[in-house]
Design brief:
Blueprint: H1 2-13, E1 22-29, E2 33-34, E3 37-38, E4 46-54, E5 60-69, H2 73-76, E6 81-90, E7 96-106, H3 115-118, E8 119-129, E9 137-143, E10 149-163, E11 166-178, E12 185-195, E13 198-200, E14 203-214, E15 224-233
Length: 237
């Protein structure tokens, strides 16, 4: 019962009015696909609340992101996660964006929880060229524990304004996996999405359609399709 209360509190927190330096939201997805892997929910949908806060003028920010299966808590609690991120946004020339930081992935509800067995720190860096077509972005992630390997993506996106409060976004990426949760190295997955953000005052409603095409059987043997609906408060949305 305490675990269910925590889930409800995290989801409710994203619906509160937020100051300008804080953003948050909650996503509901028909399945949880991450870096090509269809994660441990047996294709059940998931709710994924999150919150991000800038630390004054320091360029540092803190984030919390979580995922909970919309299914039996006792059956899927070990796969539910709460992740913590510390990031730094570097001052860059116009048209360039560079961020780096660390994320602690946490499976805090695992049976007989032990920190070394149910958490995993990961370092990351992301470089974007926002003044070029598709705003190409290169991101690199290196897991230091459970995944113990590298994952990198090269992606881009484009946006069309449909009306004063509506737009359409399309984008995608290709992923490269070097022994992160697998024993091989190579291009692992292609991810594509279409989103239609709709401004609703202080909130934005974002329906999405997503597809992941696997390039390595060790990551996934099937093409995955899923839909999502998000409520975003604060930030750029």
């Amino acid at each position: 019962m305490k675990k269910i209360a925590l889930l409800l509190a995290l989801a409710a927190a994203t619906l509160l009015p937020l100051p300008g330096s804080v953003s948050g939201g909650v996503d509901v997805v028909s399945r949880y696909v991450w870096r090509g892997f269809d994660l441990l929910y047996d294709n059940h949908p998931a709710v994924q609340p999150y919150l991000n806060a800038g630390l004054g003028d320091s360029r540092f920010s803190l984030g919390i992101w979580s995922s909970f299966a919309l299914a039996s808590w006792s059956e899927y609690k070990a796969a539910n996660e709460i992740d913590l991120t510390l990031a730094y946004d570097f001052a860059m020339p116009e048209g360039w964006e560079l961020a780096a930081g660390a994320t602690l992935y946490g499976y805090w509800f695992a049976e007989d929880f032990r920190f070394g067995d149910a958490t995993s720190p990961e370092l990351f860096a992301s470089l974007t060229r926002s003044d070029l077509p598709l705003s190409p972005c290169l991101s690199v992630y290196y897991d230091l524990n459970l995944g113990s390997g590298l994952y990198a993506t090269l992606g881009g996106s484009h946006e069309w304004k449909l009306a004063e409060k509506a737009r359409l976004e399309a984008g995608g990426l290709i992923g490269f996996n070097s022994r992160q949760y697998i024993e091989k190295t190579g291009f692992s997955d292609i991810d594509l999405y279409v989103r239609a953000p709709l401004s609703l005052g202080r909130a934005t409603l974002v329906p999405s359609l997503n597809v992941m095409v696997p390039l390595m059987d060790e990551v996934n043997e099937a093409t995955e399709f899923w839909v999502g609906i998000s409520i975003v408060l604060g930030g750029d949305e």
